[in-house]
Specification:
Number of domains: 3
CATH architecture of the largest domain: 3-Layer(bba) Sandwich
Helix content: 25-40%
Keywords: FAD, Flavoprotein, Oxidoreductase
Number of strands: 26
Pfam families: Pyr_redox_2 (PF07992)
Shape: globular
Bound molecules: flavin-adenine dinucleotide
GO molecular function: NAD(P)H dehydrogenase (quinone) activity
Cofactor: FAD
Distance between the termini: 48 Å
Protein name: NADH dehydrogenase-like protein
Structural class: alpha/beta
Length: 416
């Protein structure tokens, strides 16, 4: 345990911030070091399921975990406030309620929607980046479903994982309603395939599922501008829509840092493989907001599984090296082993160790990871489900054995 007297301030209680604060609290001496966690919300959001709030398969409350329940009994002091500005030269954070000093600062404020400067996109479309956004979409969809007098188009711009999951869930909601014949879900994608960057086998399987749900997909379709209820594509096509949802781009959350530090064009804070920023030794960034290159030289994608691993890595380094003023030995290095996408209220498809999984197996993997993820949230530590996503041989074997046991007991539950 370290005994140095430091105040560590963590901005954002998303996947990165929660894991970092709970994990770090178990590693640092309680009496000497102070860990402060700040977020505008007093709950942690389970982002992977927010499309199910938009489609009414989950309530907003089901996806909000009170931060107090996650940090209970830990050396973490939570402040609910809006973070306005970071002033690195004074080691100071400006909050709505006043200023706060830090010795070490970790910025994990996540991401926001990127509109590519397309005219009207930010004004006439809805984003889906929080439970709040999802609830607003749900209100709109509910009105559309209850309107039996008109035909409606719902348009989702972007066929990445968020657009696909949202489109599938909305189509399922609509198909279960008496008004299904009047409403069509459309997904607009700028490139030639859905799920850019994913394995071709997963793309094909997912496209089959979307077609079965009656979703219309527009490939190679670039949005030129958006007006109220109308989308104009570069190829001249105009699509009228009762609701347009924008999932096409992600950028780093725009936090004011004065003087500024190095960021990418997409507003992500540039960090090295040790999570450190270029300009300040005591400022780090992890999660969606951090732009860190992997061993192949490309940026890690904005995914919860990356945020969680960076948090655990940084907690180790913080306790072992940084607060003692030393440099860490090992770089962060992670290879994505598993990716599962939700394609309906209870349907999944994905890739595990290069095998395509769908149907009951994919569903079981998703349930397994979610259930055990909830347990690891409180400790910030590794557990067996998270191991399914780990790179080392031991973790993979342990995860395999536990998953087999989980599947067996689930099977028994079904028989009973
Ligand atoms: C619809 C959807 C589905 C997704 N599904 C998956 C999935 O299946 N698998 C996967 O790996 N990833 C998924 N992701 C991505 C995943 O949610 C992110 O990678 C992850 O949330 C990043 O964690 P983070 O801690 O960096 O940011 P976040 O989890 O976004 O946390 C940022 C925190 O900062 C707080 N905050 C921001 N600005 C301020 C401010 N000014 N003041 C105070 N607080 C502030 C926010 O309230 C939030 O709590 C999905 C994302 C979306 C939108």
């Amino acid at each position: 345990m370290s005994t140095l007297n430091k105040r560590i301030v963590i901005l954002g209680a998303g996947y990165a911030g929660i894991f970092l604060s709970t994990n770090l609290s178990s590693k640092l001496d309680k009496d000497s070091n102070e860990i402060i966690l700040i977020d505008r919300n007093n709950y942690h959001q389970l982002m992977q399921e927010i499309h199910l709030v938009a489609s009414g398969f989950r309530t907003a409350d089901q996806l909000k975990i009170p931060i107090s329940s996650l940090i209970q009994g830990k050396n973490v002091h939570f402040i609910q406030d809006d973070i306005k500005r970071i002033i690195p030269d004074k080691n100071l954070i400006s909050l709505n309620s006043g200023d706060i000093k830090y010795d070490e600062l970790i910025v994990c404020l996540g991401s926001s929607t990127k509109y590519f400067n397309i005219p009207g996109a930010d004004k006439y479309t809805l984003p889906i980046r929080s439970i709040y956004d999802a609830s607003i979409i749900h209100d709109h969809i509910s009105k559309i479903i209850s309107d039996e007098n008109k035909k409606h188009n719902i348009v989702i711009v972007g066929a990445g994982a968020t657009g696909i999951s949202l489109g599938s869930a909305l189509a399922e909601m609509i198909n279960a309603s008496p008004n299904k014949g009047n409403i069509k879900v459309n997904i607009i994608e700028a490139t030639s395939t859905i799920l850019p960057g994913w394995d071709i086998r997963v793309k094909n399987k997912t496209e089959e599922i979307l077609k079965d749900k009656g979703i219309r997909i527009f490939h190679n379709s670039l949005v030129e501008r958006v007006e109220e209820r109308t989308l104009f594509l570069k190829d001249g096509l105009e699509i009228n829509s009762s609701l347009i949802i924008w999932t096409a781009g992600v950028r780093g959350y725009n936090i004011d840092i004065e003087p500024t530090i190095d960021k990418t064009n997409d507003g992500r804070i540039i960090v090295n493989e040790y999570c450190q920023t270029n300009q300040y030794k005591n400022i780090y960034s992890i999660g969606d907001l951090a732009a860190m290159k992997n061993s192949k030289g490309t940026l890690y994608p904005p995914l919860a599984q990356i945020a969680v691993r960076q948090a655990r890595y940084l907690a180790d380094n913080m306790a072992e090296y940084y607060i003692k003023g030393n440099e860490p030995k090992e770089k962060f290095d992670y290879e994505i082993k598993a990716q599962i996408i939700s394609v309906g209220s209870d349907e999944y498809v994905g890739l595990l160790n290069n095998y395509v999984v769908s149907g009951d197996l994919a569903k079981m993997i998703d349930e397994f990871t979610k259930q055990t993820y909830m347990k690891s949230l409180k400790t910030g530590g590794k557990n067996i489900s998270v191991n399914l996503y780990e790179n080392d041989f031991f973790s993979q074997v342990m995860a395999g054995i536990t998953f087999a046991g989980f599947t067996f007991f689930k099977g028994l539950e079904k028989l009973a």
